[in-house]
Amino acid sequence: MSKQELEVLGRAEACCPGLLTSPLDEEQAVELAKVFKALGDPVRLRLLSMIASRQGGEVCVCDLTPAFDLSQPTISHHLKLLRQAGLIDCERRGTWVYYWLLPEMTDRLAGILTRPGSPPVQPFDEPAGAAS
């Protein structure tokens, strides 16, 4: 993503209506596609999940890298794409970088994908029709 794309993603007024309540205009679709593109890779989805579910709300890159059979520069590249999409942020502390979830973006995505008045969704690991 270019710097110009990052500025578009970071705009406060760049909020999308619910995907299921009204059609997206071209600009909204382009913005939303960038976020979904960042989420469209299994490694990035796992990284986001590891960061979001971490006790205390943040995780060191040194704790993320061993979970993958990938080089450290590759993990850093994936983390950079998640940052550019506005899903996570980070801070360098000494030689390590710590990451945390930006819930505003995940909340926006949830709002965009939620049907008005729809019941709560079941987790992906539960079979369809399973009682909760």
Question: Which features would summarize this protein structure in a list?
Answer:
single chain; 132 residues; mainly alpha; 3-stranded antiparallel β-sheet; 6 helices
Helix content: 40-55%
> How much β-strand is present in the residues?
5-15%
User: Helix/strand/pairing class, anyone?
Assistant: mainly alpha
Output the helix-strand order: HHHEHHEEH
Largest sheet, in brief, is: 3 strands, antiparallel
Low-confidence stretches: 1-14
The rounded distance between the terminal residues' Cα atoms is 41 Å
- Name the quaternary structure: single chain
Shape: globular
Strand order of the largest sheet: 1-3-2
Protein architecture, described:
The protein has 132 residues and is mainly alpha-helical. The chain contains six helices and three strands, in the order H-H-H-E-H-H-E-E-H. It has helices at residues 3-10, 26-39, 42-52, 61-64, 72-84, 103-113, and strands at residues 58-60, 88-93, 96-101. Strands 1-3-2 form a three-stranded antiparallel sheet. It is globular, with a radius of gyration of 16 Å.
Sequence-ordered SSE layout with sheet pairings:
Layout: H1 3-10, H2 26-39, H3 42-52, E1 58-60, H4 61-64, H5 72-84, E2 88-93, E3 96-101, H6 103-113
Helix pairs in contact: 3-5
Provide a short characterization of the protein structure.
This protein is mainly alpha-helical and 132 residues long. Helices cover 46% and strands 11% of the residues.
